[in-house]
Amino acid sequence: MRKLNRQIDPTTFPVQFTGVNRRNWELELLKEARRVRRKEIKKIDFRGKSNRWKNAKDNLLSESLNKCAYCECYFRTVAYGDVEHYRPKSKYWWLAYSYYNYSASCQLCNQKYKKAKFPNTSASYSGPVIRRNSSDEYLLRTAGKLSVDPLDNSGITITEFKRIHKKERPLSIDPYIDNPSKYFGYKHDDRTREVLIKEKSSSKKEIAESAIDLFGLNRKELRDLRYRGLLTYRFIRDASENSIDQNRKEGAKLILETEYYSDEAEFSGMYNYFKNRKLIPFT
Question: Which pLDDT score is estimated for 282?
């Protein structure tokens, strides 16, 4: 996992998640929440609504450089991938159409592992107060204030959104807010031929271990794939540091920078972790 940044270009950003469209969707959610309070329905039903957040996928993939935001695998060549709700819409219903609650995820991280789980360490992120007798006027005043608007100042501010995240302190990593490199380290094992993600320090252990479990970041396929990448990395890095052929040495350095340390590289978080550490000897 690596740090991600939102790309909010007014000329290309999907308009559904900003301005009047965003406010109308929030008003719809508020009305549905009132129906729940009135016991007209059991819960807000999002069936048939997935096309709404699918509109965000291309922009999200651009932000994650066509990798899963969590496991860092390329997936577009073999799967469509998901728009993942970081805070599950089943619980955080008011963020169901919030762009800042989305990330690009592979199906395994999202559907097999995380699903609708979302552990946290303290107070939950509280939604708007909706009662069975909440008036239409109240819902109208509240709509548009539930989430960050990527292009205008009509919603909550990004600063406030980050403050809420810090207060709630989920037992998981939001790669857009948290810096994964502060939480995760990597451990290789030549005997079992695998690379595991682990906590970087004891102070980060609770969050790191929970996030690893939540997204399945140490599933066997990932442990094996990371190890195969690390084998090649070690060979190229050895050449970059120890080759007596200057051209070969410089060529190896270039490959490391462009194919391993670059944000676009698969598992770039792992390679950058090992970058400033002593070269792992072959055993």
Answer: 66
Residue 134 has a CB neighbour count (10 Å cut-off) of: 18
Strands 82-85 and 194-199: unpaired
Q: Looking at residue 79, what is its pLDDT? A: 78
CA pair distance 239, 75, nearest whole angstrom = 30
Task: Determine phi and psi for 197, rounding to 5 degrees.
Answer: -85, 140
- Helix-then-strand count for the chain, H and E: 10, 4
Query: Minimal CA–CA distance to 197: which of 104, 69, 61, 70?
Result: 70
The pTM of this model reads 0.92
Beta strands in the chain (DSSP E): 82-85, 102-105, 184-189, 194-199
Cα separation, 107 vs 82, whole angstroms: 6
Q: How big is the CA angle at 62 (ends 61 and 65), to the nearest 5 degrees?
A: 80
State the 10-residue block means of pLDDT for the chain, 283 residues long. Answer: 95 94 97 97 95 95 96 85 95 96 96 93 84 97 96 92 93 96 95 96 95 97 97 95 94 97 96 90 66
Which distant-in-sequence residues (6+ apart) come within 8 Å of 193 by Cβ? 224, 227
Query: Cα dihedral sign for 77, 79, 83, 87?
Result: negative
The C-alpha atoms of residue 68 and residue 60 are separated, in whole angstroms, by 10
Phi, psi values for residue 255, rounded to 5°: -65, -40
- DSSP-derived secondary structure for 230-273: HHHHHHHHHHHHH-S-HHHHHHHHHHIIIIISSTTSTTHHHHHH
Amino acid, res. 115? K
Look at residues 82, 79, 85 and name the one whose alpha carbon lies nearest to residue 97: 85
